[in-house]
Structures are given as structure tokens and as C-alpha cells.
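Reader question, answered in our methods column.
A reader sent in the components of a multi-part assembly and asked whether the whole thing could be modeled at once rather than chain by chain. We filled in our standard form and ran it. Here is what they sent:
COMPLEX SIZE: two components
ENTRIES:
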Amino acid sequence: MSGYTLSHLDALESEAVHIFREVAGEFENPVILFSGGKDSILMLRLALKAFAPAAIPFSLLHVDTGHNFPEVIEYRDRVVARHGLRLHVAPVQDYIDRGVLRERTDGTRNPLQTLPLTEKIQAEKFDAVFGGGRRDEEKARAKERVFSLRDEFSQWDPRRQRPELWNLYNGRHAPGEHVRVFPLSNWTELDVWQYIAREDIELPDIYFAHYREVFGRGGMWLTAGEWGGPRPGETVEKRQVRYRTVGDMSCTGAVDSDADTIEKVISEIAASRLTERGATRADDKLSEAAMEDRKREGYF
Amino acid sequence: MTVDTLRFATAGSVDDGKSTLVGRLLHDSKSVLADQLEAVATASRNRGKDAPDLALLTDGLRAEREQGITIDVAYRYFATPKRRFILADTPGHVQYTRNMVTGASTAELAIILVDARNGVVEQTRRHAAVAGLLRVPQVVLAVNKMDLVGYRQDVFERIVEEFAADAAEFGLPGFTAIPVSALAGDNVVERSAHMGWYTGPALLEFLESVPVGADPADAPVRFPVQYVLRHGDVRHYAGQLVSGSLRVGDRVTVHPSGETTEVAAIDVLGEEVPVAYAPQSVGVRLADQRDVSRGDMVTAGGGAPTLTRDVRAAVCHLADRPLRVGDRVLLKHTTRTVKALVKDLGGALALAVNDLGRITLRTAEPLALDDYAVSRRTGAFILIDPADGATLTAGMVDLG
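And here is the structure of the entire assembly that came back:
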């Protein structure tokens, strides 16, 4: 026996690094989807490690819904500057201003991200697009490959997925097609937090308990803001909350929490009886197959 | 090696109660959270069922829910205080053999499910063949629906005896049989009160305690180069150590050139180390600045790989279009992709989807191969259609 054992975090890290390096070896113009959420922050950290001491051979892409938490945008810009990265932005607001996309009646902009993303991918000729999706998040994502081929409309066809065996990823694609790559496929929410704690990775403050003006809608605490809340009859109150996921402000809910340190967050998640999407994402509650339908259309 | 995670695959169909078994494992190990249960309860009511249908936990695609079958591989994650699990939940029907092959390729254990009322059927033999072909180290035969045969020992034993013959035929190293009722919960998480004659562990107990495969760090060094990192004038060869432990100062051979050199430095993700172990992702500096590139294989220690352009292998064909003798394809082995010509298909003219067979290929460049029986990573390859990039066939090298 070698007497050496790899912890599960080391094994997940090694697997993710292998995926990043495969993409670097087989693609011309990869990009990392970077929202400033914890999963994309983790992806960036793993990419930096995968190519150390050299620079990462990828740029970043933020699909900007216009409904951002200011703390997250500030964090994004700081990280980009610190590592000398190139940031592309695909702004949903531009599409609304030009009349290409229309604001939805529920005010949610998450489903509006697909078109700006797709057009940016086409315009910049990105051939590999890293997403922070994890299979433990949602049942349609549980069926996703690590390398997932998309046509020129970014569409996902679950019945025509390529079989993916061993760690032999197939990145072949025709011009105009691209491959979505999910290096965190095998991570769980708890793994993500344990790794963030181990590596002492800085996160936007909103992931930790703080006092905030919120109002209740659909069983979640939403932040008041210009995007359309609160409606008449919805009352604003100050509560101690934190965010488990970071997305569009209009459909990402905060949870009651006093977890103001990473250790407390980990205990909170370990004891939680709700999944992170179930607790905090209004857009996934629309129907049984809400995520599958959005993925088919090119969502990440 | 990673001791605290078990990757396993389940094979069986809804008729065998596979999704119910998986749902039961997740539910009884308390891995299903409240909002997921609520969603299942709602969906079950919409389908006119009184009790929550646990199969709905795993059948994630619209088509699967509509047809009540599992079509694609779903990966599930759960943990008990003893171990973490990654479950590849694969469909059982023969027309989805390719999905089972996919799930089995990374599994250290496979659960083959049979219905106690039907015993070993054609589909069970196919599952045993796939587990044998993919060299899944551990196999569990779960004889389900024991409640529907009065929990009878003779029924169980007759099925075990029948399966043993198949296991031997398909080269399974052995298997562990467990009588269960997924619906009633017998021997899934808790030992059954209805089968006093069975003294073995419940399924989850077995999964928690079964030893995981041999330590890859004890095998000869195999290091396929993924990517060359240039930092100033220095070239670091980046890759994942597939097997063995690599030390600074080790004499290594680079294939296919056959040149030998010495390991000058190793880093694990930016941190210098004296020694690295499989399956770490590392960067390696070699003593001479040689022209090493993606697709080359660095090896050390006894048991050199076989360098050859003539590849013989067992295969499972995965694509709807057939594979024919004379086809020109791409072959991806570790990090190397080469052109290849299909010379022979074990006497057949073509392989159809889900066919298990044998192949002989001639490649444009030599490959550094190991027997699949020795290494599931350096003995495996896929064939790719050069026209549209489709994954065609899974191959398991047979140097024999």
C-alpha cells in the first residue's frame, strides 16, 4: 500500500482540474460563465489552480440581468482586476431597451438570459462554455453530461446526449456549435462550502447572515428594489437573512439565518431540510419540468 | 485512493422496482429533502396515486415521467455517517444497454435487480454481461419484491443459483445476493423482520462496508499528458496521474517516442511536492526540455504499456448508426485522439446499437495501451464519428 489517501474534496478537485485541462487541450476559445455566485467563484478558483503557475487560458462571461446585488458586482470587478482577467458582459437590459426582449409580467428576468447568452457565444465564437451547474441541484441537471453539446441555438436535447464513459470526454463539435462544460457536476452544495472553507475563498457578503429589508412572496424573502417589489399588500420588514444562491434579485430568495461565518453556514446546510433551489428559486417552482424546459432552450 | 466515496450503478427497470429501490435508499437514508418530497407527493397525486411514488424522485426527464420508464443515466448524491455515495441510476431495458454501459464505466459496484416472481430473465443476463465486460469490481444481486413471493427462502435460493451460472459465464469475480422488498423497505436500509433465514447485511449496510477497489497508487506509473503549461522558459506537463506514485528523481519513459528522462519537479496545483499519487492532478517538469505534448504517455516502474497500432478490444456499440468493417473513425484513448480503421468485428459485418462484440482496429499512430483487465483507464477508449463528432462505440482493450 502507498499509505496515501485522497480526501473526497481532493478527489473532486482533481477531477475538476482534469476537466479544465481537457478543455484547454481540445478547444480554441473557452469561456467561464461568471455570475459572482459561489459556484462560479469556485470554478474560477479551480481554473486558477489547474493552470498555475501560468495564467488561465480562458476569459469570463457575465450574463447581466440588470437586477444585480451591488455587493456581487463589486466582488466581480475586484476579482477580475486582481487576476488580470478578461470579462465579457451580455446585458439583458440592452435587449429590453432595444425591444428585442420584453419584461415579463412577474418581473423575473432569469428566463430572459438565454438569448443574450446565446448571441454572445455566437458573436465571440466561444466553443466551450463552463457552467457551474451541479447534478445534485435539480432532477434535469442530474441527467446532464460533463461535456454537453449545444447547437447554434444553444439548445439541449436530452434524448440525443452523447454517452459519456470513464473520463473520456468528447469535445468534437461543428462550427457554430459549442460544448457546455460542467466541472462541478459531481459536487454537492455541502462539498462546495467545505471546499470554500478549506481554501479560505472570499465570497460576497450576502452569503452570510445580515440584516436586510425584505418582503415575503411565495414562501421566500425577497429584497425590495426597483425591479418590482414589493407590490401593494406586500409589507417590508427588516430580518436577519442570508442568501444560499445568488441570481436575479427578482426571483432569488433569502433564508432566515444567523449563520454569519462559514462554519455556521456549513452546519446550517448539513441540517437543512430543503434543497438550495427549493428554498430560494422561484423560477424552479413553476412546473415539474421547469429546469428541463429552460435547459432545452439554451439556459445554463 | 479515495476511501470515503463509493461510486455505484444500479441496473434494472421500473418493472423490477429499480426506481422504487433507489427512491427507498435515498428516502430511508434521509437524503431526500422536504421540498423534493413535497414535489413527489404533488406529482403522485396528479397521477392519481395515493402514496408518494418514489420512482418520481429519480426519473427526471419529462419523457421518463410520461412513459414511466428510466431512459437516461441519472446521477444521485447521498451520504451516510459512514460513507459518501455517487449513484449512477441506469435504465434496465435491453434497448438502453448503452446507458448501463455508461453508468458502469465509472462504477466500483453494480446492483443488478431482479423481480423475485420472474427470476433471472434475458435482461438480467445482459446486465451480468455488461458488469463483466466493464469489469465492475463488485456486483450485488438484489432479489426484489420478496413480499410478493411470501418472503420464501427457496425462491431466493433458486434465483441465486441460476444467476451464479451467468456470473461465471460472463466472468464476474463473484457477487453478493440480498433478498429485498423496495416497496416495503425490507433489507434496504433496515434488516427485514420477515426473512429470519437471511443473516447477511441489508443493502445499505453492505454498500457502507464493501471494500472499494485496489489502490491505483500501487500500480505502475501512467501519466497521460493533457496540456503543456509554459511559464517563462519552463514547461510543466499537466495531467492526472492515472495510476502509480511518481517521485522527483524517478526515471521515466515518454511514449510513443520511447525516450527516457528524469522527473525534475512535481507540483500539485501550484505547490511543489516530492511525490504524487494517483488520482492527483499534477504538473511535472522533466530534466531535459524535450518535445513532449498532449497525448504523450509518461510511464515508470515495471510493466511497460504495449505500444501498438493494432488494437483488439471488446466493444459495446452506443450509436444508432451501425459500425461497419471498413469504417474510418477517430479513437480517443486517454488524452490522445488518432485516426483508426475498423478492420474486423469478430466476424460480423456490422454492429448495431447496444450490440456487445469484438473489434480489431488499425490506428494511424501508435498507442501506449494496457489491458482493460489491468487498468480501466489506460485500457479504455471511445470511437468517434469524424463527420459529426458523435460518440460511436466504447472499447475495452484486450491484449491477450
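What stands out: Residues 75 and 186 of chain A are 26 Å apart (CA to CA). The longest strand of chain A covers residues 210-217.
Send us your own complexes using the same form.
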